[in-house]
Amino acid sequence: MTRKLLRCALTTAAILLAAGCGQKSEPRDGTLAIRIGQVSPLTGPQAHLGRDNDNGARLAVDEINAQGLTLGGKPARIELRSEDDAADPKTATTVAQKLVDEGVVAVVGHLNSGATIPASKIYADAGIPQISPSATAIAYTAQGFRTAFRVMTNDAQQGSVLGRYAVQKLGARRVAIIDDRTAYGQGLADEVAKAVSAAGGEVVAREYTSDRATDFMAILTSIKAKSPDLVFFGGMDPQAAPMVKQLKQLGVNARFLGGDGVQTPKFVELAGAEAEGTIASNPGLPLDAMPGGAAFKSKFEAKYGKIQNYAPYAYDAVYVLVEAMRRAQSSEPAKVLAELPKTDYQGVTGRIRFDAKGDITGGAVTLYQVRDGKWVTLETVQSAQ
Amino acid sequence: MDVFLQQLVNGLVLGSVYALVALGYTMVYGILELINFAHGEITMMGAMVALAVIGALALAAPALPGVVIVGAGLALAIPVCMALGLLIERVAYRPLRNAPRLAPLITAIGVSIILQNVAMLIWGKQYIPFPAILPQGRHDVLGASITDVQLAILLLAVVIMAGLTLLVGKTRLGRAMRATAQSRQVASLMGVDVDRVIAATFVIGSALAAIAGVMVSAYYGLAHYYMGFLLGLKAFSAAVLGGIGNLAGAMLGGLLLGVIEALGAGYIGDLTGGFLGSHYQDVFAFFVLILVLVFRPSGLLGERLAERA
Which pLDDT score, from 0 to 100, does residue B96 have? Predict the structure, then answer.
């Protein structure tokens, strides 16, 4: 690792020299310049979410710089380097390498699991800490990289909350589980199945479909014969909408439950009246339920306009990194990495601590229900893991 | 509830849609020995055009009965698809009629890609909802439940198939089509305008595709620029299963494929003790297709062997 760090430092030095010392790390007045990377899709269909993350991180950086930061007795100034991964795994690795080459000491990002996972290898090889504000796939922190952290609830936590909620709160005894065989849908459904059994419910049917199917009559008919009182679907809204319609067509008298792939406005639009009563979850918690939500909202909206989704998480991620630098009294990645697992930070989104894998402990999951054609917040549950 | 009967109903409804699309494949193949891979996309176009009309009408005149609105959607979708079928035949297939058989196959795939992208440009990548304007009644027949929409799909499909059988068997155009299918040269020597007959075949097939597209989107409640691909593939398989080139074969193949899929997906998990799950639904259907092709290469009702397939 030291050799890699050395190599990385040498590469950085070489690049800085080659760049004609355009960006010195120590300007004349002796202030340390600390580069933190931020990566999210800044172009394409998810640009609004990517900009949101960027703005959240920027707000934190501006606040920290305004307050003044001192590391090891020297004044320091944070410089945010934002890159666009276009939500594309290949681009994600390219920009990750670019940030590493530019000598960032830490990265906030990426937004999508699909982009976060391949990029995490590059940060891990360079020994640079990475905190994703929004990636939920289990695989991200399961690779064994000590550089990978997230401040967002993962799919395993979401699935276990959903399974427990189905049995304990919704009183389901006989649960049918369907998934779309994607990494996301299958992962979520497996966790739900485990949690349902653990909570004393019975999984009476386990059926499968694909992420392109629209006909579920056959599997729903065989599910109906097993008279479930709840049907869980691990997958996305284009399948969930016809599925809930076909449940009604077949006269299946069961509650419909889904994850964040279902908790979308598009689901309500596609399923119409049949969406009523559907319950689905989303990792994290709504802004007005966050401990620092109201204050964050007024600060953020004064500068950037409406919050899209994950900005508070990106904001907290920057603070978690800077807190670790303060404890280490250094911005050296190795020293910051040593401090990150000890994080216990009260952020806008709640208390942030990491487990051994880098996942947030007790990540929050919020449950919503469709009422009168709108998603209404039911409650926020802390996961047990 | 009778599970078997319910699965049979599910399969028959699905199968009658496959059959309508399969008819389009089989008619063109019967006459031109061309597999018109763009046919699935014509189905999609029919659904999209109809949905544009239905969506607009449902907003503008919500007082109109749902059946009238859907009828209006069909009334525009059918001529648009007919024109599209005519255009595709004229531009992509007629110039290649005497070219090697692989050439029109490639243009067919090209046309299919073009249509998908045109639909994506016009309507975007998202799923488009079918407004809930049709009656949502549900009937219990011998323990199986069947909805109004399912019933309408079944009846309409039967009427259309009967109509098409009459058209091909009893009318002048039908006789010309059969003659052209037997031999294009001889038919033209007998005074049949082969070009017109082929164009008519495309127009009729496209009209059926438009109706099938509207059925599918009404049934599942949504439409999507990519929906024609899998539907076309399944319908093509249905046509091969029944014996491509044979009208009754396409109908039988479509219904059979639907029923096999429904029964397969419904029972495979229980029959294999959970070893094979319902995600093998498509495998099951195609497995039967392979079996049929091994033992009856010309399909279930195909009379002659495909000489140049």
Answer: 92
Residues of chain B positioned with their CB less than 8 A from the CB of A272: 129, 131-132, 221
- φ/ψ region of B65 (left if φ > 0, alpha if ψ in -120 to 50, else beta) reads beta
pLDDT tens digit string along A312-323? 999 999 999 999
- Tens-digit pLDDT profile for residues B10-64: 999 999 999 999 999 999 999 988 999 999 999 999 999 999 999 999 989 888 8
CB-based contact A130:A149 (threshold 8 Å): yes
Q: Average pLDDT in the B66-91 region? A: 95
Residues of chain B in contact with residue A208, where contact means CB-CB under 8 angstroms, are 277-279
- Which residue on chain A is closest to B222 by alpha carbon? A270
Asked whether the beta carbons of A365 and A282 are under 8 A apart, the reply is yes
CA-nearest residue of chain B to A268? B129
Query: Which of A212, A250, A266 has the CB atom closest to B145's CB atom?
Result: A250
Domain A156-283+365-382 fold: Rossmann fold (3.40.50)
CA distance B67 to chain A (A): 18
Given this structure, which CATH class describes domain A2-153+288-354?
Answer: alpha beta
Closest chain B residue to A249 measured between Cα atoms?
B147
Chain A CB contacts of B267 under 8 Å are 222
**Which of the four pLDDT bands, split at 50, 70 and 90, describes residue B109?**
very high
Q: Which residues pair with B147 in a beta bridge?
A: B138
Query: Do the two domains A2-153+288-354 and A156-283+365-382 of this chain adopt the same fold?
Result: yes
pLDDT of A30 higher than 60: yes
| Residues with Cβ within 8 Å of residue B250, at least 6 apart in sequence | B19, B22, B23, B25, B26, B238, B239, B242, B244
Q: Report d(CA B217, CA A238) in Å as an integer.
A: 13
**For the residues B208-213, what does the mean pLDDT come to?**
96
CA distance B308 to chain A (A): 34
